[in-house]
Protein: Rho guanine nucleotide exchange factor 4
Organism: Eleginops maclovinus
Amino acid sequence: MGVQHGRSRTQLISDGSVVYAEALWDHVTMDDQELGFKAGDVIEVVDATNKEWWWGRIMESEGWFPASFVRLRVNQDEPMEEYLAHLEGAQAGEENRAGMGMLLGPGLPCKEQMRTNVINEIMSTERDYIKHLKDICEGYIKQCRKRTDMFTEEQLRTIFGNIEEIYRFQRKFLKGLEKKFNKEQPHISEIGCCFLEHQTDFQIYSEYCNNHPNACVQLSKVMKVNKYVFFFEACRLLQKMIDISLDGFLLTPVQKICKYPLQLAELLKYTNPQHRDYKDVEAALNAMKNVARLINERKRRLENIDKIAQWQSAIEDWEGDDVLSRSSDLVFSGELSKLSQPQAKSQQRMFFLFDHQMVYCKKDLLRRDMLYYKGRMDMDHMEVIDVEDGKEKDFNISVKNALKLRSLAGDEVHLLCAKKPEQKQRWLRAFADERTQVQHDRETGFSLTEVQKKQAMLNACKSHPAGKPKAVTRPYYDFLLRQKHPSLPTAVPQQQVFMLAEPKRKTSTFWHNIGRLTPFKK
């Protein structure tokens, strides 16, 4: 985050200011050295000396978390982001100028002239984009298909994803825009409805964005061989394409789906509430934000399945189906005391709440990072009951900070107790989140394929011998943010263009800090 408003975050902490950060992204972790949180949670930043990983506190929990997942607030002041302040200042300036009735161009009021500019920009970037897609489909894919000695159909599917489907859709979308575009008076064009009409079609970008990391890997493999380098360059020259590499072209759809909400936000800013297009543009902006959110969520979930598979492969005495057979997301995790009938002996267990199921494990007494599988609960057939402090009738004992999980058939009851009332509330919220997520997945049709599940488990078995730290892999977004591409809007800082891109994650700091830990600290 760098130095902001003249003082760095480290200075603020050292001079005794209470520094809070607001979570922009969920950070769900399986490592008890890391701090998990949900987007919107407020974290007290205790140590920010490391640029990438900070130490923070939420209620009773403390741990490391990625600095890029949060934005700072100081003593609950406004978010400390100079760029936003600068942007708001610039907007206020524009509105003042518009308010003064300043005229621009051939007698058009400022706001209408600005709307003309935005509409023209949307139309021209759309036409450029279609040309990019056409060049990829006709300049590269067509030529590659002729060379069966060099490419298999499966390889092409990995490198180019479903870009041909995107090309077909975008041509249809551009036709709709052209119909609504008023050449003589662009500012009166009503294009909001085009986005609304096709909002579900834009979801095909989800498949493309999820495949893009594989495309980069496959492409970098073939580009190690000279004949492929020469072949792709020949394709580019033959098609008279601009001088950027194929991976630059293949980034265009990822950027495009991120750019729509930015363009529509600009358009809304310069559309009078009385304009016939206002309501549609407003709805279109929300629709395209939702598309970007859905694509982002699916991307995050697919990246998470490898972490879940690795987590499972590190657990001792695992029994039954793989977690991935039913689940694809870790919603919450933490330590609770558990009592189950018929026994009344309390046991400390680590609980991991996934969508559809909750797994619980026992910690090794000496190696605190080692877990033994002890069981699971089917959340689709469980009800969560808030238990008041005092005597609990099913177990006939006095309880504090407790909640109960009871199977709908009534044949299974578990009593779970947290150390603090805040932790209990956090668990109750997590159980509600899990049900919401299951419902949302049903509505949006999200599910993992058998191939994805098998591949994740396979990768986990290969990736690390027991007891050794996992290898640090180069994050996909590192690659994304390094790309230079002509379709990037110059006025917008790059991090804003990648609204989709969750900040890069780093592998667990547990192994980095192990030397500093007291071996048997309780």
